[in-house]
Write a structure and sequence with these properties.
Elements lengths: L4 H16 L5 E5 L11 E7 L17 E7 L5 E7 L10 H4 L1 H9 L3 E10 L9 E9 L27 H13 L4 E8 L8 H9 L4 E3 L3 H9 L3 E11 L10 H10 L1 H19 L2
Parallel strand pairs: 1-4, 1-5, 5-9, 6-7, 7-8
Antiparallel strand pairs: 2-3, 3-4, 5-8, 6-9
Helix pairs in contact: 1-3, 4-8
The structure holds hypoxanthine.
């Protein structure tokens, strides 16, 4: 039996406070291929999830499972928490476990959360290596992390999701993407549980219902993040054309390879965006 979500997150947060001091204003969850973003942080120090109470055990290739604290832009730069690796529904985790780190960050004092992921591109004109700011999502994972008794200390029973992806953060990302000349789209992310990739018929359906990209993470984290009052942004790396839209079979190797190719553009965008997000949420 798991401990109740609030108590788990509160204990995790007080562990983070005593180990690392005050929370940074912003945190970023690093998707496939981005894990070593954390190594570039100034004064980086961290801990494996396994050594942090309330953090999930993670075990997918390309997902390390490490929380790293450091600064962007040198020793006097913006403090950030980077989560290299996340728990996925397809690993068999309970949705509460998938979102436990998000809640711990919030109770620690983090104000904004940027979630990154790898996704298959559905919308016409997307190419592998492009980036997409999430404007919204469609949760087709079959799970909701808020199912069960609600603890009002975390958030409301029926949280609003009408502007889940913060409009100010979206505008900042669009500005930064344009200034850097990036191929940065904005669109709707469809979250499925996986782990099989979609069929071509499923992709045609997802396109019809308004999906622009598809992946196996992020949506339950965003629901939990909004529930507990975090301001949220999301960016997908379009690592492949979704099933039936390209000439090749889908593979995790292709996903990882393309994520690595897009890495420097992606990291540049994160390094520019996170200080701007921090400035928005600082008291
Ligand atoms: N489908 C689902 N998840 C993904 C994909 C995809 O095409 N690419 C990267 N993650």
């Amino acid at each position: 039996m798991h401990a109740p979500p609030y108590e788990t997150a509160r204990d995790a947060a007080s562990h983070l406070q005593s180990r690392f001091g005050d929370a940074p204003p912003v945190a970023v969850v690093l998707g496939s291929g981005l894990g070593d973003f954390a190594d570039g942080l100034s004064g980086a120090r961290g801990a494996a999830y396994g050594d942090l109470p309330g953090f999930p055990p993670v075990g997918v290739e390309g997902h390390a499972g490490r929380l790293v604290l450091g600064r962007i832009g040198g020793p006097d730069g913006t403090p950030v928490a980077a989560l290299a690796g996340r728990a996925h529904l397809y690993e068999g985790h309970d949705p509460t476990a998938v979102v436990s780190a998000v809640r711990a960050l919030r109770l620690w004092g983090v104000g904004a959360l940027l979630l990154t992921n790898a996704a298959g591109g559905i919308r016409d004109g997307m190419r592998p290596g492009d980036l997409m700011t999430l404007s919204d999502h469609i949760n087709l994972s079959g799970y909701n992390p808020l199912r069960g008794p609600n603890d009002a200390r975390l958030g409301p029973r029926f949280p609003d999701m009408s502007a889940a992806y913060d409009p100010v953060f979206r505008r900042i990302l669009a500005e930064l993407g344009a200034a850097a000349g990036l191929r940065l789209h904005e669109g709707v992310y469809v979250g499925l549980a996986g782990p099989s990739y979609e069929t071509p018929a499923e992709i045609r359906m997802l396109r019809t219902v308004g999906g622009d990209a598809v992946g196996m993470s992020t949506v339950v984290e965003v629901i939990a993040a909004r529930h507990c009052g975090l301001r949220v942004a999301g960016i997908s790396c379009i690592t492949n054309l979704a099933a039936g839209l390209g000439q090749t079979e889908l593979s995790h190797d292709e996903v990882k390879e393309t994520a690595l190719l897009a890495r420097s553009a992606f990291v540049g965008l994160l390094e520019a965006a996170l200080p701007r997000f921090a400035a928005e949420v600082r008291p």
